[in-house]
Amino acid sequence: MSRILLIDDDLGLSELLAQLLELEGFELTLAHDGQVGLDLAVEQSFDLILLDVMLPKLNGFEVLRALRTKKQTPVLMLTARGDEIDRVVGLEIGADDYLPKPFNDRELVARIRAIIRRTNVHTDDKTQAVQTFGDLKLDPARQEVHCQDQLIVLTGTEFSLLFELVHHAGELASKEVLSEKVLGKKLMPFDRSLDMHLSNLRKKMPERIDGRPRVKTIRGKGYIWLP
Asked: Which residues of the chain form CATH 1.10.10.10?
């Protein structure tokens, strides 16, 4: 049974979501302020964290920023509808995805299952060997990446994006396909999630010894991992 931590100060919504997610087969833990939520997230093991932005004591961004220094637990941020700045900031500091409020039950459950599924897709197969791509070594079972003998700490979404790109090196990886495979959702107009995750990935990867870029963006179409 997958364990979910919900950090939200709306008691009524929290209770409704608890009932919904428990009926869907998830084990849910609740926290109603940022500090308690952060403590639980660090001390315990969860498959996913649902994190509201507006929280007492520590806001959602502060919780996420502190969490990412210790753990890479997948995080789905709950943002106010139309608040593009919150979404961009959340993705920049390590959120795996976002869902604007108000949302419908089926969409929430679908997003949760998609994130957990893509996080587990590599780790479930413990027999997968370490794979080498140039100066990169990918360990699918551990979701770890070494580059130039240095461990690169990635979120589950960043690892999945890198995995897809390097396995199709030299080919155009369309945004539509990557959105389905990496984010578990159809690409929507003006959705910058993939761009933000790729930006984070670029920042974390060391430069190649020969100075060549690792990935090329084809505007409006997708990305090419350069072998």
From this structure: 131-225
CA distance 171 to 150: 26
> How many residues belong to the chain?
227
**Among 70-84, 114-128, 191-205, the least confident range:** 114-128
How far CA 77 is from CA of 87, 174, 184, in Å, comes to 8, 25, 15
User: Are the C-beta atoms of residues 76 and 98 closer than 8 Å to each other?
Assistant: yes
The CATH number of domain 3-123 is 3.40.50.2300: yes
pTM of the model as a whole: 0.86
Q: Which of 153, 167, 141, 155 is nearest to 193 (CA)?
A: 155
CATH of domain 131-225: 1.10.10.10
**pLDDT for the residue 85:** 85
Instruction: Give the single-character DSSP code of 182.
Output: I
Question: In the chain, where does the domain assigned CATH 3.40.50.2300 lie?
Answer: 3-123
Query: Phi and psi for 157 in degrees, rounded to 5?
Result: -65, -40
- Under a CB-based contact definition with an 8 Å cutoff, are residues 30 and 46 in contact? no
CA distance 3 to 50: 11
